[in-house]
Write a structure and sequence with these properties.
The structure holds 2 protein chains of 2 kinds. Chain A is α/β, with parallel strands linked by helices. Chain A folds into 2 domains: 240 residues, Response regulator (Rossmann fold); 132 residues, Response regulator (Rossmann fold, 3-Layer(aba) Sandwich), CATH 3.40.50.2300. In chain A, strands 8-7-9-10-11-14-15 form a 7-stranded mixed sheet. In chain A, strands 1-3 form a two-stranded parallel ribbon. Chain B folds into 2 domains: 272 residues, ABC transporter involved in vitamin B12 uptake, BtuC; 58 residues. The longest helix of chain B is centred in the middle third of the chain and has 28 residues. The radius of gyration of chain B is 24 Å and the shape is globular. Classes of the chains: A alpha/beta, B mainly alpha. At the A-B interface, helix 1, strand 4, helix 3, helix 4 and helix 15 of A face helix 3, strand 6, helix 11, helix 13 and helix 16 of B.
């Protein structure tokens, strides 16, 4: 343990100095516990993309990348331990894949000067870069997701959902409670009736919620679930013969392992997404040659091309591109967390860039700015085809209702700024 | 040789009745306090304080609290997580300014200093604990355990539902704002490692001293009388109502303080279902069982064991490092050879005695474990997949609980007592 402490101290000193060995992208993963089904493919995708960069390009800008993995089990205490044990190694960006851990880390990373990227989760109002200097949640956040789901309902109903009943089945935690305000505002705007059905952690017990749905007969059900909660909800929906076409999950409730347990009954279930699905992209050939064939795939290597694997890979791609941008801005390949933050703030993803990376039309084009850390908030809808066992993108990446969301983001982030005496930036 | 009364003369009753009557033991205790207060604060960094010392101190307070109830008074409780949540939310309300609404008009207290917020949170939890302790006057054992389990689930549900408790925040999370004592930040993001450590250490030390003296005094004797046989205790004049409810009050006071520190100083942001779920109740109960029922030292030992074990397993098994110094690599071969030798000796012992533990079997088991640990730590971790290590950790903790319950029901504290007895005579046991 003593030698360990000494190496940690040396690493801490080295992080402050100019000489560094690798670009470190820690992965706070969870491969155990009730949320492991979602944690495993994401962690595999995140690790495999960086392995691929190392093998194919020799790292980023000529410097090898390193992805130390730390098991959090979706538990905030272990998340803190993981953060403290990896931050000394010169960690460039954290992606905890847990809203609870994100809330914990927001003040810490800001004090330590390390950027935090919570892609499609975390604290939604962190999109306001004026208040949250080190937190990013591009390209889309929870409130965009809620709005995209409502937009889809508007589209299928010819623009009018007045008087329709919408039920929100949500994980009874900070994560699940996030969309409530947005959905309430949208309900005032579009005139639908909203009912709320919380499901407690971990979500294996949902009989009473679905009994209520069976009794109230809502026209649509929106779900903010994660982990084991998703497959239980879809199974329960199948049990009460709820029409799957009218059941929409957020992007954390729309992966293969969520729908397969219900079999054919899950056919037609929809999910919001902010990136493309399937393995029909050139980048997967590179992953196969440089990672899988060399026996370097993370985990069991059986997740490639699944929805959450793609999301992990997409997160890694955005981190790698931000690192490249940082290297260009500062003219050095050995970037520090502070430079990485600048790179993330100046990140621009275009269709040409994605095509060059072998991921054409994989996600929306967007640019991050000092004020806007949240990206454009575009989202599409995918649908599960149980016969082919495939998710299909059934709409383009469309806009969300920023007229409703922006005031909410401003209000919430300004309340946070007032509470913590934060001076607004970017003026 | 050690821990001997010989030559240690007492000339007053006070001297004879003190907590550590043996001189060597007393100096050891002063030495531990000196190291904890005067040396550790200069040596620790963020990692040590956030991964090891804060959870250890905070869980120790919770374990002392539960030990008073379960170990001293014999009332089983599974509501620890819920009572910690009461402490955390009460502390949050006091530190952000308690607001009360009467007829639509808001009356708010000014924010209270963090130290007093923590103490007040303990008092609020004591009141709640007494309320949920009332059933203990009618029911015992498993039935009481189920009643306190109800408290656990009810309190978690309450703090999810009751938006006043989390100041109406949209996410239901509570966040500790920055608070200072004498100009030094104790909560919030920009705290120094030594400040949070000393704050928790002072409270933990005070709690332990008070608990030790309570359990040595009249109230502790009443609790133990109730634990050992409640009818007999009633006959000799112990009032069960007072004894049981005072145990619940004191126990909940400690657990509430632990919950307040857990939220405000250690995590900084919590969500009730995740941070104070049934898991918390179990882990504190395990600490009490492994540490030793009815022992203040055992509470510390149990907390240290369950906080350190996962970190140690992670360092040993999951981590990996590329650069090892020449000295370390030589030492690692030595330890590997020692590990192999210990395993061979264990096998020989099994073949000879036809038993795993007969003869020197237990000794060889411990020797092989120690050699493997030394090997894993010198090479900087085995680099096994993180999920296997996480599962292994559950298996090991579970196995240890079973082993302790069978082999040493009085826990680590009893091992410590036995070791002290042995050391008194060592090296001349006759």
């Amino acid at each position: 343990m003593k030698t360990k402490l000494a190496t940690m101290a040396v690493a801490a000193v080295m992080a402050a100095g100019p000489v560094m060995a690798d670009l470190v992208f820690p992965s706070l993963s969870y491969r155990t516990g009730p949320y492991a089904a979602g944690g495993i493919p994401f962690a595999d995708g995140y690790a495999d993309y960086f392995t691929m960069l190392n093998e194919r390009d020799g790292g980023i800008g000529g410097i090898m990348t390193k992805v130390p993995e730390c098991e959090t089990g979706y538990n905030t205490e272990k998340g803190v331990e993981c953060y403290e044990s990896t931050k000394g190694e010169g960690a460039l960006v954290y992606q905890p894949l847990s809203t609870g851990i994100t809330y914990q880390l927001i003040p810490k990373v800001t004090a330590d000067g390390i950027p935090l990227h919570t892609m499609g989760y975390g604290r939604t109002s962190a999109a306001n870069g004026k208040v949250f200097s080190h937190v990013f949640n591009y390209p889309a956040n929870y409130w965009n997701g809620a709005s995209v789901a409502i937009n889809h309902l508007l589209e299928t109903n010819g623009g009018d959902i007045k008087g329709k009943k919408v039920a929100l089945v949500y994980h009874n935690s900070a994560y699940g409670k996030e969309p409530i305000r947005t959905l309430e505002e949208l309900s005032a705007k579009h005139g639908y009736e909203l009912s709320l059905l919380p499901v407690d952690h971990p979500g294996q017990e949902q009989k009473s919620q679905w009994l209520q749905i069976r009794r109230d007969k809502p026209d649509y059900v929106i779900m903010y679930g994660w982990g084991v909660m998703n497959q239980v909800a879809i199974q329960e929906a199948a049990n009460i013969r709820f029409n799957m076409e009218n059941f929409i999950g957020i992007w954390w409730s729309g992966a293969e392992h969520d729908v397969t347990p219900a079999g054919d009954a899950a056919n037609g279930y929809k999910s919001v997404t902010f990136h493309n699905v399937g393995s029909d992209f050139p980048v997967f050939d590179d992953i196969k040659t440089h990672v899988v064939d060399k026996g370097l795939a993370a985990g069991a290597g059986d997740q490639i091309g699944t929805v959450l694997y793609n999301r992990g890979m997409y997160a890694a791609m955005l981190a790698a591109e931000a690192a490249k941008t940082a290297q260009e801005i500062h003219g050095t390949a050995q970037i520090t967390p502070a430079m990485m933050r600048d790179g993330m703030e100046a990140l621009e993803i275009t269709e040409e860039k994605m095509t060059a990376l072998g991921m054409p039309n994989f996600g929306p084009s967007f640019a991050v700015s000092c004020e806007n850390h949240g990206g454009p908030g575009l989202g599409g809808i995918t649908q599960w085809n149980a016969a082919d066992k495939k998710w299909n993108l059934i709409s383009d990446f469309g806009p969300s209702d920023m007229d409703v969301i922006l005031p909410l983001i401003t209000a919430d982030s300004e309340a946070f700024a007032a509470e913590n005496n934060i001076e607004q930036r970017c003026n | 040789m050690f821990y001997r009364e010989a030559g240690d003369y007492k000339t007053s009753y006070q001297d004879d009745g003190q907590t550590f009557p043996i001189k060597f033991d007393r100096y050891r205790y002063y030495f531990v306090l000196f190291v904890a207060f005067a040396m550790v604060p200069f040596l620790i960094n963020d990692y040590w304080v956030n991964a090891i010392f804060l959870p250890f101190l905070i869980y120790s307070i919770a374990a002392i609290g539960l030990n008073i109830l379960v170990g001293y008074c014999g009332q089983v409780s599974l509501g620890t997580g819920g009572f910690m949540a009461v402490g955390a939310y009460a502390c949050y309300k006091f530190m952000t300014g308690l607001d009360i609404w009467i007829d639509g008009v808001q009356y708010a207290l000014p924010p209270i200093n963090i130290f007093f917020s923590v103490i007040l949170a303990g008092l609020v939890t004591a009141v709640v604990g007494v309320l949920f302790g009332l059933p203990s006057l009618r029911i015992k054992g498993f039935y009481l355990a189920v009643a306190t389990l109800a408290a656990q689930f009810f309190l978690v549900w309450l703090f999810n539902k009751w938006s006043w408790a989390y100041n109406y925040s949209a996410s239901g999370q509570i966040n500790a704002p920055e608070r200072e004592i004498f100009g030094v930040a104790i909560t919030g993001p920009s705290t120094d490692a030594w400040a949070t450590y000393l704050f928790c250490l002072v409270i933990a030390a005070l709690c332990a001293i008070v608990a030790r003296n309570l359990t040595r005094g009249a109230s502790g004797r009443k609790w133990m009388a109730i634990r050992d046989m409640d009818i007999a205790a009633e006959i000799i004049g112990v009032n069960p109502l007072k004894a049981k409810l005072s145990a619940f009050a004191v126990s909940s006071f400690y657990i509430g303080i632990a919950g307040a520190l857990f939220f405000a100083v250690y995590l900084g942001a919590v969500e009730v279902g995740e941070a104070f779920g049934i898991q918390k109740s179990f882990i504190v109960l395990f600490m009490v069982i492994i540490g030793g029922l009815g022992s203040i030292f055992g509470s510390f030992a149990g907390a240290a064991f369950l906080v350190l074990l996962p970190v140690l397993l992670k360092l040993m098994l999951a981590d990996s490092t590329d650069e090892i110094s020449g000295f370390s690599s030589v030492m690692s071969w030595v330890f590997l050879a020692a590990f192999a030798a210990a395993l061979v000796m264990l096998v020989i012992n099994i073949v000879r005695t036809r038993s795993l533990i007969a003869g020197a079997g237990v000794g060889w088991i411990f020797a092989s474990i120690a050699a493997f640990m030394a090997y894993a730590l010198t090479i900087g971790g085995m680099g096994w997949p993180t999920d296997i290590v996480a599962h292994l950790q559950l298996v090991i903790v579970g196995a240890l609980i079973i082993i302790f319950l069978i082999a040493e029901p009085h826990g680590l504290a009893q091992l410590w007592r036995v070791a002290k007895e042995k050391l008194r005579l060592w090296p001349f046991p006759h």
